[in-house]
């Protein structure tokens, strides 16, 4: 049996493969050879085979059949075997495989091995992938090694201890005695470094440990001072700075110890000021230290002068040519903007400039920071920059940017017109990226800006003429046209410079119908435009055209559209006089803000009296009371707008509440979406819903209603006739 | 904590893969591909920090990378690591490789994957920084190599 090929031979062979298939074939061939070699229990070449297996594993090929072999290597006496065996264990095994527990004994023995490198290997492996059971078993050995004078082992033991503590936090106490001498003067850089890491881990995990270790602050300050003051030390220094990694670690530990503690913070103020002012910033290492210092200053209870110094350092970083420095500066400013808002505001223009940076990561940070800095004073200027940014930024940013702009506009808008203009700008620029909930929110905003209705609908109409591809824009525009179409065609405008919009009824209907048939429109958009068309039947005079459009969609494939059309026409309504018992299905869907906005508005207007028609109780049974309030819809006197108010006086909520209505053939009925489908108990609120009844023949209004809901877990259903309509509501 | 260290070339071929947190094998390969995809489309004049890809933990983690000739060195870290510090660490690691292999190039990494792991082991242990002194690292690695050589003709 020839010796298995060497690792580099395998690598050379694999590199000659010209296709993935060829490579796979070579790998499979070699795996087969390795497998039979394993089966023969070949001790001599086991290490070679495992090494090859690890190489193939890196390329993405399965290597689990080598797991046990790694264990055999670990148990071998040879250093070569152990070295590759432990590496294999770390790469191929983890605590999910039961096999890993077999390592425990080997590791235990190797922790006590006579050769420090073997001890080192076992410490490394335990510290990488030791399971909780293993850590429990071997914590004692690790603790022993933490106290050894061998610095090579001590530093590894420190990091291994960190892993043990992470796996089995209860064992933390055990390492406490060993920490006593960790920061002693005798220790050199390497040990100090990992010791600080261990101390940091303990402080982060346990508030008790944190208080206990606060007494180390003076020692840490002293070590840091020595590092700064010490002369050129070729061993540890990088670019002329002494052991920058250790400095950073110490600064981080100081941060944890000083946070929230006055005494500790005071003890470190001087050294922080010293590092902040004296550190060389021409090389990256200096900046790493400076950056860490700034973070520490910001986190502890430092004097205000020191804080301002820190923020100014960050401000300087923002102007640095090195992009990495700019990036970390923005990140830190983002963290401090809440607590030191004014200090950060001073650097606002620099931050805004970063919006134009080419680097995506920097742009994102700058955007987040810009939003954090917007306030009532700078809203106009900031919004200009942010809208410009929205225009030109990557698609990844647009959704977040749009949301941020909406939020900022809502909080700080200097005027309603500015607010609406801003919103419109976002919709036209990034309309396809705004979040779904922006549409109802915007509709709410527009509804509430009563004095801007004409202006808004004219602007939106104009935008529609230009572009119908951005769905949120189209939806809001459709809704507005449906609501304020009369203001659109009348051409009046509250603003001094009216928008030049010549909109005739037919043109408007053309546009809305165009949306219905366009490929660009989503089903939701179509629903909006159909609803708008229907609403316009009460505002426009071209009712016949509207009825025609709506009846087309009565047989539309789109169920939503069909439903709405049917509701409107109500052609298959029950003939009350005929006496059929089947109540027509006039289901309404769970509320969406736009349709009910009208209903809510009416609700806001309160019970009655705007029109002088008294309200009436239509139904009152089993704790459910339904009141009708009336409004004449101008300018069509043939339409009665009834709002139902359903209240519940029982102690349990009425859920899944659905109100249905049928009217005689000579009437037409339209039911808008209800405000909700839960009638809260004990009259704590009401469900409202708007009914529009078209009564061209001015006949006496009668209605049959059907109520369904769930009460205390059981379904309830009831039918009732409503005949007591006041004459004014239908005459 | 360092979650993973990946070295791959300009075509995405892995040269060294070290995860300090458990991932299933196929997930490891996916992460390599995703990381390569994210890092390779970066310009040369942008910063060296990226949000982590979704597979490796998303925005909770950062990718800190350096591009040397034909190789990308990528460290995936969590928020407890200093970004600028890790950049320095990558530099230290690369300079150490340079010392150990004498003007290191990609071929060295290709043919001595095991040795690169051993060097890395002296720099990072369990996802934490162990040693940053280049000379110290090189010395330790040398001594261990010598131990290997002194054993009977056992060549991997």
UniProtKB/TrEMBL annotation, chain A:
One of its GO terms (cellular component) is AP-1 adaptor complex. It is a peripheral membrane protein. Residues 611-726 form the GAE domain. One of its GO terms (biological process) is intracellular protein transport. The keyword Membrane applies. Belongs to the adaptor complexes large subunit family. This is AP-1 complex subunit gamma. It comes from Cyprinus carpio (Common carp).
From TrEMBL, chain B:
One of its GO terms (cellular component) is AP-3 adaptor complex. This is AP complex subunit sigma. Gene3D superfamilies: 3.30.450.60. InterPro entries: AP_complex_ssu, AP_mu_sigma_su, APS3, Clathrin_sm-chain_CS, Longin-like_dom_sf. PROSITE patterns: CLAT_ADAPTOR_S. The keyword Protein transport applies. Signal peptide: none annotated. It is found in: Cytoplasmic vesicle membrane; Golgi apparatus. The gene is LOC109050916. The lineage of its organism: Eukaryota, Metazoa, Chordata, Craniata, Vertebrata. Residues 1-147 form the AP complex mu/sigma subunit domain. It is a peripheral membrane protein. It comes from Cyprinus carpio (Common carp).
């Amino acid at each position: 049996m020839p010796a298995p090929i060497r690792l580099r031979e395998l690598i050379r062979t694999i590199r000659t493969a010209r296709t993935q298939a060829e490579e796979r074939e070579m790998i499979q061939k070699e795996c087969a050879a390795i497998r039979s070699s394993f089966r023969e229990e070949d001790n001599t070449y086991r290490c070679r085979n495992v090494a090859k297996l690890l190489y193939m594993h890196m390329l993405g090929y399965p290597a689990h059949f080598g797991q046990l072999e790694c264990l055999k290597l670990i148990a071998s006496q040879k250093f070569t075997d152990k070295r590759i065996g432990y590496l294999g264990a770390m790469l191929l095994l983890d605590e999910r495989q039961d096999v890993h527990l077999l390592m425990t004994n080997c590791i235990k023995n190797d922790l006590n091995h006579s050769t420090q490198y073997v001890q080192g290997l076992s410490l490394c492996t335990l510290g990488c992938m030791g399971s909780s059971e293993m850590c429990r078993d071997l914590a004692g050995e690790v603790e022993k090694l933490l106290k050894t004078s061998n610095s090579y082992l001590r530093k590894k033991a420190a990091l291994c201890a960190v892993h043990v503590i992470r796996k089995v936090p209860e064992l933390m106490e055990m390492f406490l005695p060993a920490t006593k001498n960790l920061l002693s003067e005798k220790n050199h850089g390497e040990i100090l470094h990992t010791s600080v890491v261990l101390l940091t881990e303990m402080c982060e995990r346990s508030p008790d440990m944190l208080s206990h270790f606060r007494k180390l602050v003076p020692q840490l300050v002293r070590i840091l001072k020595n590092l700064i003051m010490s002369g050129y030390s070729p061993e540890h220094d990088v670019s002329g700075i002494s052991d920058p990694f250790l400095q950073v670690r110490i600064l981080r530990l100081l941060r944890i110890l000083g946070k929230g503690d006055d005494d500790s913070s005071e003890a470190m103020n001087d050294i922080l000021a010293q590092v902040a002012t004296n550190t060389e910033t021409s090389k990256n290492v200096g900046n790493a230290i400076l950056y860490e210092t700034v973070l520490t200053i910001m986190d502890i209870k430092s004097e205000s002068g020191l804080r301002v110094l820190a923020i100014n350092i960050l401000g300087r970083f923002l102007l640095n040519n090195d992009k990495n420095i700019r990036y970390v500066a923005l990140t830190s400013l983002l963290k401090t903007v809440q607590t030191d808002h004014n200090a950060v505001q001073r650097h606002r223009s620099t931050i805004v400039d970063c919006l134009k940076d080419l680097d995506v990561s920097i742009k994102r940070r700058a955007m987040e920071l810009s939003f954090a800095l917007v306030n009532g004073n700078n809203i106009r200027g900031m919004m200009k920059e942010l809208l410009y940014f929205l225009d030109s930024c990557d698609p990844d940013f647009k959704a977040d940017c749009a949301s941020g702009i909406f939020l900022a506009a809502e909080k700080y808008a200097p005027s309603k017109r500015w607010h609406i203009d801003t919103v419109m700008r976002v919709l036209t620029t990034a309309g396809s990226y705004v979040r779904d909930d922006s549409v109802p929110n915007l509709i709410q905003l527009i509804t509430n800006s009563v004095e801007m209705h004409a202006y808004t609908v004219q602007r939106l109409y104009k935008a529609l003429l230009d572009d119908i591809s951005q769905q949120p824009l189209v939806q809001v525009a459709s809704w507005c046209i449906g609501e304020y179409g009369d203001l659109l065609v009348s051409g009046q405008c509250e603003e001094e410079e009216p928008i030049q919009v010549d909109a005739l009824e037919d043109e408007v209907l053309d546009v809305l119908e165009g949306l219905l048939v366009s490929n660009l429109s989503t089903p939701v958009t179509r629903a909006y435009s159909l609803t708008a068309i229907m609403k316009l039947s009460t505002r426009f005079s071209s009712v016949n055209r509207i009825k025609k459009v709506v009846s087309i969609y009565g047989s539309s494939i789109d169920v939503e559209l069909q439903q709405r059309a049917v509701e409107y026409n109500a052609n298959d309504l029950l003939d009350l006089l005929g006496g059929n018992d089947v109540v027509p299905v006039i289901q309404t869907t769970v509320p969406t803000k736009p349709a009910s906005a009208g209903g809510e508005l009416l609700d806001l207007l309160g019970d009655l009296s705007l029109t002088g028609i008294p309200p009436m109780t239509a139904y009152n049974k089993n704790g459910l009371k339904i009141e009708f309030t009336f409004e004449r819809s101008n300018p069509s006197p043939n339409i009665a707008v009834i709002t139902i108010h359903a209240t519940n006086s029982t102690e349990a909520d009425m859920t899944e509440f659905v109100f249905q209505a049928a009217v005689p053939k000579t009437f037409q009925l339209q039911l808008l979406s209800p405000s909700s489908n839960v009638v809260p108990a004990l009259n704590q609120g009401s469900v409202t819903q708007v009914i529009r009844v078209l009564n061209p023949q001015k006949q006496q209004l009668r209605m049959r209603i059907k109520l369904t809901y769930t009460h205390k877990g059981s379904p309830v259903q009831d039918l009732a006739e409503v005949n007591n309509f006041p004459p004014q509501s239908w005459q | 904590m360092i979650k993973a260290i990946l070295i791959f070339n300009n075509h995405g071929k892995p040269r060294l893969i070290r995860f300090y947190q458990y991932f299933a094998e196929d997930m490891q390969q996916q992460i390599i591909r995703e990381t390569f995809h994210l890092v390779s489309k970066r310009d040369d004049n942008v910063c060296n920090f990226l949000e982590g890809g979704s597979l490796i933990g998303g925005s909770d983690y950062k990718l800190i990378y350096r591009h040397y000739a034909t190789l990308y060195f990528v460290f995936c870290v969590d928020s407890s690591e200093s970004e600028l510090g890790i950049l320095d660490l990558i530099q230290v690691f690369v300079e150490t490789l340079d010392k150990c292999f004498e003007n290191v190039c990609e071929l060295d990494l290709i043919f001595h994957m095991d040795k690169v792991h051993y060097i890395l082991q002296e720099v990072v242990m369990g996802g934490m920084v162990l040693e940053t002194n280049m000379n110290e690292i090189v010395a330790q690695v040398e001594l261990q190599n010598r131990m290997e050589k002194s054993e009977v003709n056992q060549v991997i």
